[in-house]
Amino acid sequence: DMLVLGSAGVLEWGRAVRYEDPIPHLDMLVLGSVAVSESGLRIGKGEGYADLEYAILRAKGAVDDSTLVVTTVHDYSVMEISDSVARQHDVPVDLIVTPTRVIPTRTVLPKPQGIYWDLLTEEKIQAIPILQQLRPLDP
Length: 139
What we know:
- The chain has helices at 6-13, 49-59, 122-127, 129-134, and strands at residues 28-32, 35-36, 42-43, 68-72, 95-97, 102-104.
- By secondary structure, the protein is α/β, with parallel strands linked by helices.
- This is 5-formyltetrahydrofolate cyclo-ligase.
């Protein structure tokens, strides 16, 4: 019955999870998107946070290639986007849900295999405490 939207809802209804806390394997992960292609390429707000969240969950073993990645968008947000713009850290979606359609993407785009440290600035690492914890552990 509770709806958690945005950081205000998380602060009110969520609970803190420490890195040491176990996270069960997720069968499905829902990511927000600004736009998405039927081939599974998603475009977010441009800061890379959804991709980074996926990478952190991957580092924790909570997601892997079998995890179904879903996005919900309006019909007009499904558009042609060239797969050539995809980067190694971009999380492709397996399923697109709109108000009028459910679109299996059958994506061939690879899911990220972890955190790509060379793509992160020191400023971003310092701003996100879990990255500071993960960096010494990641080979």
